Amino acid sequence: MKSFPLAVLTPRECVYDGVVRSLVLLTEDGQIGFLAGREETVVEVLAGDFRLTDAEGQSLCFETDGGVFRITKEGATLLCGAAYPKETAEEKRQERAERLEEEKKRQERSLSDYKMTRAALMRAFEKIKRRDRRI
Predict the structure, then answer these.
(1) Count of structural domains, the chain
(2) Is residue 39 part of a domain?
(3) CATH number of 22's domain
(4) 23: exposed, middle or buried (C-beta count within 10 Å: 0-12, 13-18, 19+)?
(5) Is residue 24 part of a domain?
(6) What's the whole-model pTM score?
(7) How far is CA 98 from CA 7, 30, 92, 103, 124, in A?
(8) Which DSSP symbol is given to 94?
(9) Which of 4, 18, 19, 61 is the most buried (most CB within 10 A)?
């Protein structure tokens, strides 16, 4: 059976990089399967599971939060925000949620610091204006 190279990429890492026989993705039109030699295509991938069969015939299942898939004559690429092997999906999802919560708190602190600094600068400018009026 023919095969094709596949790379599953997230902003943080390359989740999978290898040769596969088939790939099944979840799209708006339902599950779509891809084999080697398929016409060049770009599709939006929805959040959920996707399955692939590697060159040795082993079936692997991953979970993704959605993204974009492109297949060409040279190979295929799946770009997504996050993707995990199904066995570790719950653990990885929890880690990602914690990172996002941490980032949200950091942004809130940053905004708070900005507002306090701005207020301090406004007070300093008012003092300078009052001092200049007296002179």
Answers:
(1) 1
(2) yes
(3) 2.60.15.10
(4) buried
(5) yes
(6) 0.66
(7) 26, 31, 10, 9, 39
(8) H
(9) 4
